[in-house]
Amino acid sequence: MKQLLLTTLTLLISFTAFGQINLQDSTVQVIGYWDKNETQSYVIIN
Predict the structure, then answer these.
(1) Which residues does UniProt assign to the signal peptide (predicted)?
(2) What is the pLDDT of residues 21-42, one digit of tens each?
């Protein structure tokens, strides 16, 4: 049982490691869903 748990945990960690984006080659698409004359403010930190 410990072997199965360890293998599952290792696989989950490796899947999240491959899911990271490359910061030098990435873009962001933002779609705003707000009403007319309503404003939204965002703070972007790199």
Answers:
(1) 1-19
(2) 666 777 777 787 888 888 878 8
